[in-house]
């Protein structure tokens, strides 16, 4: 159990470019979540997966955002045609059903990917 | 929709003293979880403590304890014997209980309280 990992930790890009972030959840955690956190604010929910199925998307997730979890393990979050307003910390978290590692139904967070759009 | 309010943007406390962070929430749900997370400067979000709404007993984790008042929709965090390493942003968060229908599992966070522990 090595915790949730995210790559890259920092990403600087120019407006209009596409970026992709990766999240590796805690092993055996079947739920995976993406949040966005802007400076001085609490994280805001973007989307979540149960296994490979994307079960909910926030209205914050515009058409330029897409998330996948193809094999029910790691997940990717892609932002197309980035805008300066996309600059934020993107957090990934995972959780398990009863019997999984760590406390049931409790989300454990990764270190985040800080995106800066110039 | 649920809302979480943390009315203290910043607080400070002397090392070894006790401090209480406030959190109130609004929900029509009866079954839910409440959490306190800690986010040290430039470091990742760490779970501090969790409370199930159906449990009347307040949760405790070593120096951290909560005062959960369900009727008042209040969930404060008490940190005893404060340490320099407790300096961090603290977030209160709400989650519906599994099986309560609708948008399960997502966390709704407050805006956070920046706690500084002074030597």
Protein model, in words:
By secondary structure, chain A is an all-beta fold. Chain A contains no helices and eleven strands. The N and C termini of chain A lie far apart (36 Å). Helices cover 0% and strands 50% of the residues of chain B. In chain B, the strands form three sheets. In chain B, strands 2, 5, 6, 10, 11 and 12 form a six-stranded mixed β-sheet that branches. In chain B, strands 3-9-8-7 form a four-stranded antiparallel β-sheet, with no helix packed on it. The model of chain B has no long low-confidence stretch (mean pLDDT 92). Chain A binds chain B through residues 31, 33, 35, 40-45, 48, 56, 58, 91, 93, 95, 103, 105-112, and chain B through 4, 33, 35, 37, 43-47, 50, 91, 93, 95, 98, 103, 105-112.
Structural class of chain B: mainly beta
Approximate strand percentage of chain B: over 45%
Q: Can you count the beta strands of chain B? A: 12
Our Rg estimate of chain A from Cα atoms comes to 14 Å
Q: Describe the biggest sheet of chain A?
A: 7 strands, mixed
Distance between the termini of chain A: 36 Å
Question: Which parts of chain B are unreliable, with pLDDT below 50 for 5 consecutive residues or more?
Answer: none
């Amino acid at each position: 159990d090595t915790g949730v990992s995210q790559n890259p930790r920092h990403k600087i890009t120019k407006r209009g470019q596409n970026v992709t972030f990766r999240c590796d959840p805690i092993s055996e955690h079947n739920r995976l979540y993406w949040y966005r956190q802007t400076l001085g604010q609490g994280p805001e929910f973007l989307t979540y997966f149960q296994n490979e199925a994307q079960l909910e998307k926030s209205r914050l997730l515009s058409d330029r955002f897409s998330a996948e979890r193809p094999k029910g393990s790691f997940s990717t979050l892609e932002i197309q045609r980035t805008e300066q307003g996309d600059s934020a910390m993107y957090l990934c978290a995972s959780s398990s059903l009863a019997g999984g590692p760590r406390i049931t139904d409790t989300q454990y967070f990764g270190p985040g990917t800080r995106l800066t759009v110039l | 929709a649920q809302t979480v309010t943390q009315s203290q943007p910043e607080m400070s406390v002397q090392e070894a003293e006790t401090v209480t962070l406030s959190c109130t929430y609004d929900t029509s749900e009866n079954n839910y979880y409440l959490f306190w997370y800690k986010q040290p400067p430039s470091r990742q979000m760490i779970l501090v403590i969790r409370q199930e709404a159906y449990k009347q007993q307040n949760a405790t984790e070593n120096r951290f304890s909560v005062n959960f008042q369900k009727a008042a929709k209040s969930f404060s965090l008490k940190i005893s014997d404060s340490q320099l390493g407790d300096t961090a942003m603290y977030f209160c968060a709400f989650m519906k209980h599994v099986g309560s229908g609708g948008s399960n599992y997502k966390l709704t966070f407050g805006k956070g309280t920046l706690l500084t522990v002074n030597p």
